[in-house]
Amino acid sequence: MSLSEQKQKIREHVWDLLVREKVALPPFPIHGRIPNFLGAEAAAKRLLQLDSFRSARTVKVSPDSPQRPVRELCMRLGKRLVMPTPRLREGFLLLEPSKISERNYRQASTIRGGFTFGEKVEPESLDKIDFIVVGSVAVSRSGARVGKGEGYSEIEYALLRMLGRVSEDTPITTTVHPLQVVSEIPVEEFDVPVDYIVTEDGVLATNTKIARPKGIIWHLLSERKIDEIPLLRRLMKT
Questions:
Q1: pLDDT of residue 238
Q2: pTM (predicted TM-score)
Q3: Of 5, 36, 115, 197, which has the maximum CB count within 10 A?
Q4: Whole-angstrom Cα distance, residue 205 to residue 234?
Q5: What is the total count of domains within the chain?
C-alpha cells in the first residue's frame, strides 16, 4: 500500500469514527472535508494556555469550519487574522479587528464574512506570521498530520516560508476532537508537522522531529494544481 493510500485509509477511519460516535457537526457529509466536531469552541479556548498564542500579533488560521471559533477568538483578542481563501484561488485575506465592529466578529470569522470584512492581500505584503492554526482530519502524537488530501495547507506553508513570512520556528497548531488523534501517520517530504495538538481536553506538545519543507517543492506539483492557483503561477515566473 502506498503512503497516499495509507493516509486515505486513516482519513476514512476518522471520518467514520466521528460519525459513528455522533461527535461530527455540520457541514455534512464530513467525508472529504476537514470535519467540524463537537467541542471545537472549547478547543479554541484551550489555545489560551499557550504563551506563543497569547503573545502572537498576527495569526494565520485555516478557513475550515472547525477553526471558525479560533478565527473569532483571534479577533476578540485584537490579533491580526490571516485567512487563506478556499483552495488559495484568491490568495489571502487579512482581517484587522480594529477596523471591524465587535458585533461583526462572529460573522467576519466565517468564510463569507472574511470576504466581506477582510482585505485581499498579496502574501509578500503580509507581516511576519507569529502563529499558525491548521485544520486536520487526523494527527499523531509525533506531530504528523493529514488534511483532506488536496495539499492546500502544505502549499500555503511552503509559499509563506519561501517568502519569509513564516520560519522554522513559527508554532504550528491544530484544533481537533480527541478521536482525531491516531497512533501513527506516514510522512512525505511535503508534509508540515504540528507542534501542538489542542482538544477540548487540553494541549499536547508533540516535540516533533519531523522536518518542515523550506519552500515549494515544485516537482511534486501537477500542472493542474499550479494552473488553479494564481499565486503559484505568478511565483513560478519570478
A1: 66
A2: 0.96
A3: 197
A4: 37
A5: 1
CATH number at 21 reads 3.40.50.10420
Q: Long-range contacts for 228-232 (Cβ within 8 Å, ≥24 apart)?
A: 228/87, 228/89, 229/87, 229/88, 229/89, 229/155, 230/89, 230/91, 231/88, 231/91, 231/123, 231/159, 232/88, 232/155, 232/159
Helices (H), 1-151: 3-20, 40-46, 51-55, 68-76, 105-108, 111-117
Residue 83 has a pLDDT of 97
C-alpha cell at 17: 469514527
Question: For the chain, which ranges sit under pLDDT 50?
Answer: none
Check residue 59 and report its DSSP letter.
E
**Which domain range does residue 213 map to?**
3-236
The terminus-to-terminus CA distance of the chain in angstroms comes to 38
